[in-house]
Design goal:
eight-stranded mixed sheet; binds zinc ion; four-stranded mixed sheet; alpha/beta
Length: 471
């Protein structure tokens, strides 16, 4: 094999790092050239979505984060009585302000947002010494199409904060990055996307209790599951402030997704083991969708997919949704500065500690908000994913036949079959097969992983669905 210029290869094809490394090393990789020619184009950008992304404002995000910090502490255990709320101190005051912001955005769009709270009394637990009121605040932008409106995409961040002592409720816990940044992403997406209309529903959520043990998100996800909500995607933003350390890469945001689902049944696990499905959880398909949104729209930041639930020693609210069987991922800045998280505000030996606004890169948070908004808007504009997607495995054949049921709700005008080599991290090929519910491709199912997605007349793509084998 001739040696390639490694620099040019990524421009030519959507290849995984393993394959790229193999090429750069001059290793033979069967029929690479032929595969490169039909590498999938990304979907066309929707001009309305592209225009909305330009409305996302670093200045608005800065104002939001500074306001959140002004409550001095947003510890879930801090005061939330009327006097504390009136004095503008503690989590109760933060909650009321977030609610008033959502209500303000709603007034600006003719009442298009339904602003709601999900409150409950958390019983004493590990980091909750006494019964504590926890309140999630959220705004619903209901879909315009009766059938599609049952489909929900959701963005979330946690508005509670902490300092060095997780039980301290009096000293400053500014939480500018953790997670004022994620809360600001949720609010800014609400402000900008509420000016558009989408067939599916978008929920803009902010939760409390994260630092005490994911209590708020757990309650919300369980409530959604028991109410039968069809949440297609959860985007959890936690520590997306782009801390201004010298080793930060402000062009990259990490996107964490679970591989083998925590909610998998024993039967699911048997299938995953037999078919090599370790990297095709619904959360991972969502992560790949985010990667595609990042290629389609100018956001200023590139998603770096991390194939792992979360960072070492850490957890986050997306896990609460994973536990209920929902697709959920976590966005986090490229490099965290641990002096600026979960720390009392202080200076020691010339080193500054504390989660202060001055360490946050507001332009970076705005870019992460753009990537979130591009993903939410794309999904909320797209048809539902095809249902009952199957790969026929009745006989030993070198062709592969896929069947599915039409995307419910009507707007799909065609379907695409995606595939990739089993060793590749992202989809490599997309083939439109028209407005059908069955397709046969001259490729062996033994060698690739397939998926099917629905496409509407404007080119909006649904999440892809990996087929189940059917005998
Ligand atoms: Zn956090």
């Amino acid at each position: 094999m001739k040696s390639h210029s490694c620099a040019k290869l990524p421009e030519l094809m959507v290849l995984g790092s393993l394959a790229r490394a193999a090429l750069c090393l001059g290793l033979a990789w069967a029929s690479t050239a032929a595969w490169a020619q039909d590498a999938p184009a990304t979907g066309p950008a929707d001009s309305k979505i592209a225009a909305a992304l330009k409305q996302i404002s670093a200045a608005r995000i800065q104002a939001t984060i500074e306001k959140l910090v002004s409550f001095q502490t947003r510890s879930t255990l801090s005061a939330q009585d009327p006097a504390a709320i009136a004095s503008g101190r503690g989590i109760g005051a933060a909650r009321e302000w977030i609610k008033s912001e959502f209500e303000r955005y709603s007034r600006d769009c003719g009442g298009c947002l339904e602003v709601k709270t999900d409150g409950f009394t958390q019983a004493p637990a590990d980091r909750i010494p006494k019964p504590t009121e926890i309140t999630n605040v959220y705004a619903v932008l209901k879909g315009t199409d009766a059938e599609s409106a049952k489909r929900i995409v959701l963005v979330t961040g946690h508005y509670d904060s902490r300092n060095s002592d997780n039980l301290n409720v009096t000293d400053a816990a500014p939480g500018a990055n953790d997670d004022g940044s994620g809360t600001a992403v949720s609010l800014e997406c609400a402000r900008v996307l509420s000016k558009l209309k989408f067939p599916a529903t978008i929920i803009f959520l902010t939760v409390a209790g994260e630092e005490q043990g994911l209590n708020g998100s757990k309650h919300f996800a369980e409530m959604a599951k028991s109410a039968g909500w069809n949440i297609e995607a959860v985007l959890n933003n936690d520590i997306v402030g782009g801390d201004r350390s010298s080793q930060q890469d402000p062009t990259v945001v990490r996107v964490f997704s679970e591989g083998v689902p925590v909610a998998a049944t024993d039967a699911d696990l048997r299938l995953i083991r037999n078919l090599g499905g370790e990297s095709d959880s619904i959360s991972r398909e969502l992560a790949r969708y985010i990667a595609e949104a990042g290629r389609t729209y100018e956001t200023g930041v590139k998603p770096m997919l991390i194939f792992r639930l979360d960072r070492y020693l850490r957890g986050g609210d997306h896990y609460s949704f994973n536990q209920q069987g929902y697709a959920a991922v976590r966005f986090t800045e490229f490099r965290e500065d641990y002096n600026h998280q979960h720390q009392n505000v202080r200076t020691e030996n010339g080193v500054e500690f504390g989660d202060l606004p001055k360490f946050v890169n507001f332009d970076y948070v705005a870019n992460v908000a753009r990537l979130n908004a591009a993903t939410l808007a794309s999904l909320a504009s797209a048809p539902a994913p095809p249902a009952m997607v199957h790969l026929l495995t009745k006989e030993l054949q070198n062709d592969s036949t896929l069947t599915w049921e039409a995307s419910p709700g009507g707007p799909a005008t065609s379907y695409e079959v995606l595939w990739r080599a089993t060793m590749s991290p992202d989809w490599e090929h997309a083939q439109s097969v028209g407005n059908v519910t069955r397709a046969t491709l001259p490729k062996s199912k033994d060698n690739v992983i397939f998926a099917v997605r629905a496409v509407d007349g404007q080119g909006h793509r649904s999440l892809p669905v990996v087929p189940l084998p059917e005998r």
